[in-house]
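Researcher: I'd like a candidate sequence for this fold, 133 residues long. If you have to choose between options at a position, lean toward the conservative one.
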């Protein structure tokens, strides 16, 4: 099963995991998170990430989901990419995470693709109910 690591500013990753567990109705044993604060040395975060990768990778690979591209969490994630083993996607949101979890039994490249489409398709302009009629 593909492991998923959420690398975000402060506690966003924890909140996403909590929401995803609620939606999925089960503990997420293949998911971990790294909270990055502006006071932390990125090299220390990379070391923690390597430990988490080793813990979650059963040979199926790891998908890193990070928040804002160009921020410290995405820069750390970029340093961890190993094509075909550790892949990264920026712009994490709850639909992206749930989609990745839904397909985590598939090969890593499928999980990456499903995460991206889930994230994109989860962003919608909402109209009031009367206007949809």
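Model: Candidate sequence:
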């Amino acid at each position: 099963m593909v492991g998923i690591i959420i690398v975000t500013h402060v506690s966003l990753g924890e909140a996403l995991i909590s929401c995803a567990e609620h939606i999925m109705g089960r503990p997420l044993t293949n998911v971990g998170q790294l909270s990055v604060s502006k006071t932390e040395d990125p090299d220390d975060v990379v070391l923690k990430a390597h430990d988490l990768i080793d813990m979650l990778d059963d040979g199926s690979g790891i998908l890193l989901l990070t928040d804002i591209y160009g921020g410290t969490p995405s820069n750390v994630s970029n340093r961890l990419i190993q094509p075909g083993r550790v892949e990264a996607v920026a712009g994490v949101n709850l639909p992206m995470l749930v989609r990745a979890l839904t397909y985590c039994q598939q090969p890593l490249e499928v999980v990456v693709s499903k995460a991206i489409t889930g994230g994109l398709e989860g962003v919608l302009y909402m109209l009031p109910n009367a206007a949809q009629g």
